[in-house]
Specification:
Blueprint lengths: L2 H20 L19 H4 L28 H5 L7 E6 L2 H12 L6 H11 L1 H6 L2 E4 L4 H7 L3 H13 L2 E2 L4 E3 L11 H8 L3 E3 L4 H4 L3 E9 L3 H12 L4 E9 L6
Parallel strand pairs: 1-7, 2-3, 2-6, 6-7
Antiparallel strand pairs: 4-5
This protein binds zinc ion.
């Protein structure tokens, strides 16, 4: 390792140790003191449901009973999604919802340090296949209201940690859509249809590439399907999806 990098690492270790001594890291959910920045307390950890095998090979939906690796869920067998594969770190339950909402609407941006290691673990295989990482974009109006795109923060941090190319302005949301909450699966599909485009000058960037789309929550998959459709029509080879959380099928 070059000595300049060694020195820089020693300096950042020392800086982190000083900050931790002055302001001990706290659980982003409960406020309890924890060992390192981004960690959650053991009590809160126990409320999270990390998604482990067995799950649907395509959409990543967890199975509540044992099925052979590679099995598909009924929904994917009935209608294949337009993305290739999707993975999520946790089930969207009361605990993960609390964290995601605080991140998205409560300006708790440092929660990104909590989510990113979970997402890298859940998406290890998909990250390995990816040439580039792309966030699900917000419409310009929504971005002005919220001041940041939570999916872009996650995508950028994952790309930095894994050394992948980060393409923030490739996919654009050109139509302001009403929030998907409360809409049926069919209405969600209709709501996002035609809402995205690939920037004209980025078609060559995505052509024949394996892309990894990042979003916060996988609900019905309507938005992610539409993004995959647009990216594939621009020539992408594969479009995989990675989110923090996914809604269990029976919840919608
Ligand atoms: Zn499935």
């Amino acid at each position: 390792m070059p000595s300049a990098i060694k020195k820089k690492n020693r300096f950042s270790d020392l800086w982190e140790a000083t900050i931790n001594a002055l302001l001990p890291p706290r659980c982003v959910a409960t406020g309890e003191i924890v060992d390192a920045q981004g960690m959650v307390s053991p009590v809160f950890w126990a409320q999270l449901q990390f998604i482990e095998d067995p799950f649907c090979k395509t959409c990543g939906s967890p199975f509540s009973f044992n099925l052979p690796t590679g099995a598909l869920c009924a929904a994917c067998m009935e209608q294949e999604p337009l993305f290739d594969q999707s993975r999520s770190a946790v089930t969207y339950n009361e605990a993960s919802r609390k964290l995601v909402l605080a991140f998205k609407y409560g300006d708790r941006l440092h929660t990104v340090h909590t989510f990113v290691p979970w997402m890298i673990r859940a998406g290890q295989e998909l990250i390995g296949q990816a040439d580039c990482i792309i966030p699900v974009p917000l419409h310009a109006r929504r971005l002005r209201e919220r001041r940041f795109n939570q999916s872009a923060l996650l995508a950028q941090a994952i790309a930095t940690r894994t050394g992948k190319d980060y393409l923030p302005d490739t996919l654009l949301r050109i139509r302001h859509t009403t929030p998907q909450n409360g809409l049926s699966a069919k209405d969600r599909d209709r709501n996002v249809r035609g809402a995205f485009v690939v920037k004209k000058c980025s078609h060559a960037t995505v052509r024949d590439k394996n892309l990894l789309l990042i979003d916060d929550v996988f609900t019905t998959g309507a938005t992610l399907n539409e993004c995959a459709r647009i990216l594939k029509s621009a020539g992408a080879e594969t479009v995989n999806v990675l989110t923090i959380a996914r809604v269990a099928k029976e919840e919608f």
